[in-house]
Structures are given as structure tokens and as C-alpha cells.
Amino acid sequence: MNTENNESQLRDLVKEKYGEIANQSREENATSCCGTSGCCTVDYEVFAENYENLNGYVKEADLGLGCGIPTEFALIKAGDTVIDLGSGAGNDCFVARAMVGEKGNVIGIDMTEAMITKARINAEKLGFNNVEFRQGIIESIPVSANRADVVVSNCVLNLVPDKAKAFHEMFRVIKPGGHFSVSDVVTKGKLPEAIRKDAELYVGCVSGAVDLQLYLRMLGESGFANVRVMKEKKIDLPQEIISRFDAGSTDAEYGIYSVTVYGEKPAAYCAPGSGCC
Q1: In-domain check, residue 42
Q2: Secondary structure (3-state) at 140
Q3: Which partner for 180 in 46, 87, 151, 173 could form a disulfide, CB atoms 3.0-4.6 Å apart?
Q4: Domain enclosing residue 233, as ranges
Q5: For residue 257, how many other CB atoms are within 10 A of its CB?
Q6: How many DSSP H helices and E strands does the chain contain?
Q7: How far, in Å, CA of 159 to CA of 155, rounded?
């Protein structure tokens, strides 16, 4: 199988899975095979953070799919334009909207039609006119260059087949002097191949993860400066997962972590051909 076909199949798998999740509540997801702790995949609840006390929190938009709270370190100000990559039902968008206020703007990007539909319904119920949702993939973000003051993302970039391309797209859409704050799943050490190659775990935000140092290096190679880990938490997989896929390894040999990473687009950055340099 060539790389292009493999990436397309992975995207289709993720879209199918998250399309199913979009049509259920968080409670339904937590008890179904197609949800956050069912028999088909990893328990998302081992990653999820509690949003309930955050300003702007909308319960209907919280499907429990995150692995952090990227807005916690995003330094979002009133009037900012924020782009959320992999916006799902709108959870992080609505928290960001509470921070940017009436004069700011929030744009959610998601490739799953069912998630876009659910997010738009949530926004309409709330009467928000400065939050919009666009369908698209992160490797080709449907937003013009230098648009965002801040980019956030929550447990999505690990699902992107071409992470280097996604990071370059993040850089493109952020204004010079802007920054990102993303929560994601990464690994340390060598993740067993049985886990990395398993498609169910790929959708479950594990086998699509890359080593933390590679992750940080790719961000730097995309042009970002001052890249640093703001928060880190080790994820302990359920014993049944370890037994099923990794009977011969021990926890000491590798680790799976949720991290929140911050980085900046240099203010002096000038794109070739833009006329500014």
C-alpha cells in the first residue's frame, strides 16, 4: 500500500469512528462500543480533563474526547481570533469564545461532517454569531494565511497522518507574533508495534502518537520558536490493553503521555513572496 492510500484509509477510519461518536452524548459514548470507553477502542476517559468549572463550558459540546485543556496555556485575549483544529462538537471553541468576547472570533475546523453539524447546532442554540465551523483537514486548513492570533487543538494532531505538514499549516495560519497551545498524546521510548499498528487504538489516540522529542523537533522545523511543554501527564493503559497487545513488555520500557505544548510564530517572520521582506 502506498503512503497516500494509507493516509486516506486512516482518515476514513477516523471520520467513520468520530461520526458515530458525534451522534451520541458523552454519557452514551461512555457506555457504548463506539464510544469513549467501549469494547472497540481505548477508554478516552483516561485522557479527558474536567471542563465543568470553566467559563464558556457547554455540556452538549463536551464529548469527553480531549486529553488536556489547551486554552489553559493559550494566553487568549479579548478581541483575538482563535482557530481550533479538530473542533469536534465545539467544546474548546465555546471556552475560547468566552475568552475572546464579543469582539473576537473563533473558527473551528473538523473533517467529520457529523461533528460540524453538531457544533453548528450548539452554536445556534447559544446565539453566537462570532463562532463558525468549517469542514476540512488539518494538512490543508481552510483558512487564509496569517489569520489567527492563537491556534488551539485538543487530542487531534496525533490522529493526523502527516504531522509535519499539519504543523506547517498551523504556522501558515498564525499571524506573525501569534502562538499556539495544543494538547496531544505523545510517546516516550519505543511503543510496541502491536499497539502502533492497531487501527482501533489509532482512533483511540494512542498508536498515532509520535515520540515527544520528534514532536517538538517537527514543530521547530515548521518555523515555531520558544516551543515548550507546559503540562505533562503519564497515561496508564488498562491492563487488558497491555495484555492484549503487549504481553512481552513492561511499563518501564516505554510511556504514553498527554502533554500541552506551547509555541510562537516569530513576530519578524516574513513569508517568501509576500512583499514584506
Answers
A1: yes
A2: helix
A3: 151
A4: 3-264
A5: 18
A6: 9, 7
A7: 8
Q: How far is CA 212 from the centre of its chain?
A: 15
- What's the rounded Cα separation, in Å, for the pair 226 and 215? 14
- Residue 162, domain CATH: 3.40.50.150
Q: How many other C-beta atoms can be found within 10 angstroms of the C-beta atom of residue 170?
A: 25
Length of the chain, in residues? 277
Is 276 a domain residue?
no
Is residue 221 included in any domain, yes or no?
yes
Distances (CA, A) of 14 to 20, 54, 86, 169: 10, 28, 12, 20
Residue 272 located in a structural domain: no
Per-residue pLDDT of the chain (277 residues; tens, 9 = 90+): 455 556 666 666 665 565 565 565 555 554 443 334 343 444 455 566 888 899 999 998 888 888 899 999 999 999 999 999 999 999 999 999 999 999 999 999 999 998 999 999 999 999 999 999 999 999 999 999 999 999 999 999 998 989 999 999 999 999 999 999 999 999 998 777 777 666 556 656 676 889 999 999 999 999 999 999 999 998 876 666 666 665 455 545 678 889 999 999 999 866 655 545 5
Q: Total structural domains in the chain? A: 1
- Yes or no: say if 89 and 157 are a contact pair by the CB < 8 Å rule: no
